[in-house]
Structure formats: structure tokens, C-alpha cells
């Protein structure tokens, strides 16, 4: 078992994403999947992008990334053909699939920073990411 408290995360700012990434060497990470944490400050926007994940099983691309907003949040999900406002005080999950090339960005319209856990399957590789 590995145990990581949020206070033990190492936060670094990504200008191209306009978000902070929280990492720790004890978070799960292998070729199948990895986990990081993300923080988008109030009034900021995680840049719109999509992924082409390399995992292929029986000819089907099965990659995805799933965001778990453990404190809820007031955000606008920016999609290719839609914007969806979500205002929730309870935890929620958003999942984007690479086989559909689901373009996504997140605008934080709340008064506080929004934090979420990011599960990437397979493991994130910066070469799979395309900014719009």
C-alpha cells in the first residue's frame, strides 16, 4: 500500500494548460494508467485540447481520462460543439474518451480554486495531447 496526503503533493504550474499539476512519486503510475491532481484557479481556464491515446485492444482505442472533482465546483466544460455549466457542492466525475477525440477544457467560474484528481488510461504522454 502507498499512502499520499494532499498536503504531500508537489504543485507545479503549466502555462500552456493554465493549471497547476499536483504530483507525488507514490501516486499510481504504470503503462496502463497514472494519476495526478489538477487545480484551476478561480477565473482561469484549462486550455481546450483533446488526446489521441495509443492503447489499442482488439482494434479499438480504449483510452480515456477521468476527472474526479472531490469538492464539487462551479465550472463550464468547454467541448467541441457545446459548453456545459456545472455547479455542484457534491463530488462529481467527468470522463473524456480519446476514441471520440473529445475536445475539452474547463473554465472555473467559481469564487474558489477547483481541484480534481485526474486518472489517465493509459499513462499520460505529452505527445498524445493536441491543443485547439
Biggest sheet features? 6 strands, antiparallel
SSE order: EEEEEEEEEEEEE
Average the pLDDT over all residues and give the rounded result.
Answer: 91
Radius of gyration: 15 Å
Strand order of the largest sheet: 1-2-3-12-7-10
Strand content is over 45%
Q: What structural class results from the helix and strand content? A: mainly beta
Total number of strands = 13
Assign an overall shape.
globular
* Measured distance between first and last alpha carbons: 39 Å
Number of alpha- plus pi-helical segments: 0
Explain the overall architecture.
Strand 8 and strand 9 form a beta hairpin. The chain has 132 residues and is mostly beta strands. Helices cover 0% and strands 52% of the residues. A six-stranded antiparallel beta sheet has the order 1-2-3-12-7-10, with no helix packed on it. It has a five-stranded antiparallel beta sheet with strand order 9-8-11-4-13, with no helix packed on it. Strands 5-6 form a two-stranded antiparallel ribbon. The model has no long low-confidence stretch (mean pLDDT 91).
Top keywords for this entry?
132 residues, mainly beta, six-stranded antiparallel β-sheet, five-stranded antiparallel β-sheet, 13 strands, 52% strand, globular
Topology of helices and strands:
Layout: E1 10-14, E2 19-23, E3 34-40, E4 45-51, E5 56-57, E6 60-61, E7 64-69, E8 73-79, E9 83-88, E10 92-97, E11 104-108, E12 114-121, E13 129-131
Antiparallel strand pairs: 1-2, 2-3, 3-12, 4-11, 4-13, 5-6, 7-10, 7-12, 8-9, 8-11
Report a brief summary of the structure.
With 132 residues, the protein is an all-beta fold.
Amino acid at each position: 500500500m502507498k499512502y499520499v496526503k494532499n498536503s504531500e503533493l508537489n504543485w507545479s504550474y503549466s502555462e500552456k494548460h493554465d493549471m497547476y499539476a499536483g504530483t507525488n512519486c507514490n501516486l499510481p503510475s504504470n503503462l496502463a494508467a497514472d494519476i495526478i491532481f489538477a487545480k484551476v484557479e478561480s477565473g482561469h481556464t484549462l486550455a481546450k485540447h483533446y488526446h489521441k491515446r495509443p492503447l489499442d485492444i482488439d482494434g479499438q482505442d480504449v483510452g480515456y481520462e477521468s476527472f474526479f472533482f472531490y469538492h464539487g465546483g462551479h465550472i463550464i466544460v468547454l467541448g467541441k460543439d457545446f459548453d456545459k455549466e456545472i455547479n455542484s457542492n457534491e463530488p462529481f466525475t467527468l470522463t473524456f474518451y480519446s476514441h471520440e477525440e473529445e475536445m475539452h477544457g474547463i473554465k472555473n467560474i467559481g469564487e474558489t480554486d477547483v481541484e480534481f484528481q485526474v486518472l489517465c488510461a493509459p499513462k499520460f504522454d505529452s505527445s498524445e495531447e493536441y491543443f485547439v
